[in-house]
Design brief:
This is Porin domain-containing protein. Keywords: Signal. This protein is mainly beta. It has a domain of 157 residues. It has a 22-stranded antiparallel barrel. The chain is globular and about 55 Å long. The two termini are 32 Å apart.
Length: 452
């Protein structure tokens, strides 16, 4: 899939280059040079520290699996000193706009020191030690008044949470409008993976209601899965909006069929109070490719929440959620309170979430406290800080790596219109659920960005 997408990208570039450079005024080349220095430490137990770094409220990345080490680059390296160049070519030819974004790693100033992760044998951290120009990623976007074509590396691709929710994919994604009908079509793959993903969505806006029909298909060596879905978004009144989706899922090799259903509503009760509700049910044999659902299959989810605008500077949010999984002995319950605050140049968020039976068993409770702050010291300098503390009241085999304290601080300083300097320090300490292994890590990463 990577070779196909890059070949298509270069073919389109060649096709566009001839007329584009005939009209030089319509073509603009910009870029960014980023010089990065990073140091990190994983403590005495590198595997446990790596598990802590991947937590959703920390770095929110996955440890590499056998045959796919791409996510390993996103972990801190013990030492890395390198430079990247990102180029962007934009133009407008005959009312067709194009945008080619190319990321390249051009030079490593020192040999990177990476951290071994024994569970797969891969090293964690940036792994490029070459001093030669090479292509890392490329994305071509071509648009006109009604259509957009994207070809190449599509980072953070979102389709549906039961299919592709937020994945780095490669391929072609086209959106267009035909007779007031919005159409999306895509062919995608993932680097170093055999899976291929295909999809078509057709949406029609009827005014108060927008209907979308969806057809997805995924192919891998062991299984072929097809999803057929209908989604409706409706504005019932000025105060009430309702969204719902029903999907039917068929797995060919397993010879199973199942369903996914989600409905959520948002009601503006007063100028100060908004209430929310959600219900989701997933069938026994439903197949979700990237496990972005609460459980793989056979569960119900209930949520009720409310937003309270206390004043112009403070908003309080409250949520209560229940998860009921057929194959687990206990229901999972979560209560979350969050406060969003703006005070002068400070933007702050504070939240606490208590989850009972987090492992769907008795006495597997966790509490998560999160504090975030951003201080705009001036038009050119911003300071950020974050604290996350996750504590476990009890432990079980389903509650791995749930105890940690994470601290992060950052400084973003704009030296000039085209030069900026960003520095971020991170620290984490914690243990796995049964307190048999402890982890402790830290990293310091600084970047100098020069745009042109």
């Amino acid at each position: 899939m990577r070779k196909i997408s890059l070949l298509l990208t270069f073919a389109l570039v060649v096709a566009l280059t001839v007329p584009a450079f005939a009209v030089v005024d319509n073509v603009e080349i910009t870029g960014e040079v980023e010089t990065v220095f990073e140091i990190g430490h994983y403590g005495e137990d590198e595997d446990t520290t790596a598990e802590l770094w991947q937590e959703g409220d920390v770095l929110d990345i996955d440890l590499p699996e056998a045959g796919d080490r791409k996510d390993g680059d996103d972990f801190p390296a013990e030492k890395a000193f390198y430079q990247t160049i990102n180029l962007n070519i934009t133009g407008n030819v005959d009312n067709i706009k194009f945008d080619l974004a190319v990321d390249t790693i051009t030079n490593s100033f020192a040999e990177a020191t990476r951290v071994p992760y024994s569970n797969t044998g891969y090293d964690l951290g940036e792994n490029d030690d070459t001093n030669q120009f090479k292509m890392d990623t490329a994305l071509l976007t071509v648009t006109n008044d009604v259509s957009t074509l994207k070809a190449g590396d599509l980072n953070g691709t979102k389709v549906d949470k039961y299919f592709i929710n937020d994945e780095d994919m490669e391929g072609v994604d086209i959106t267009t409008t035909v007779a007031d009908v919005d159409v999306r079509s895509f062919v995608l793959g993932k680097d170093e993976k055999e899976d291929d993903f295909y999809g078509v969505t057709v949406a029609k806006d009827f005014g108060a209601t927008k209907l979308t029909g969806k057809l997805y298909h995924a192919r891998e060596a062991a299984e072929k899965v097809t999803d057929l879905a209908l989604e409706a978004k409706s504005t019932v009144s000025n105060a009430l909006t309702v969204n719902g989706q029903l999907a039917f899922n068929s797995a060919k090799e397993a010879d199973t069929t199942s369903s996914f259903f989600n409905v959520n509503a948002n009601y503006v009760l007063t100028d100060m109070v908004t209430v929310r509700g959600e219900f989701e049910t997933v069938g026994e044999d439903f197949v979700s490719y990237y496990n972005d659902l609460e459980k793989d299959d056979d569960y119900n989810k209930f949520n009720v929440g409310s937003d309270f605008a206390l004043n112009d500077n403070n908003t309080l949010k409250a949520d209560y959620t229940v998860y009921d999984h057929a194959n687990d002995p206990e229901k999972k319950n979560a209560i979350k309170l969050a406060l969003d605050n703006t005070t002068g140049a400070f933007t702050n968020t504070a939240s606490v979430e208590f989850t009972k039976n987090n492992g769907y068993e008795e006495n597997t409770d966790i509490t998560v406290l999160t504090l975030e702050s951003e201080y705009a010291m001036s038009d050119i300098t911003t300071i950020t800080a974050k604290l996350v503390k996750q504590a476990a009241d009890d432990v079980s085999a389903n509650n791995d790596y749930v105890k940690y304290t994470y601290l992060a601080a950052g400084l973003d300083h704009k030296l000039s219109d085209n030069i900026s300097w960003n520095t971020e320090a991170k620290y984490i300490t914690g243990s796995n659920s049964d307190d048999t292994d402890d982890g402790e890590g830290n990293s310091l990463k600084t970047k100098l960005k020069v745009s042109f």
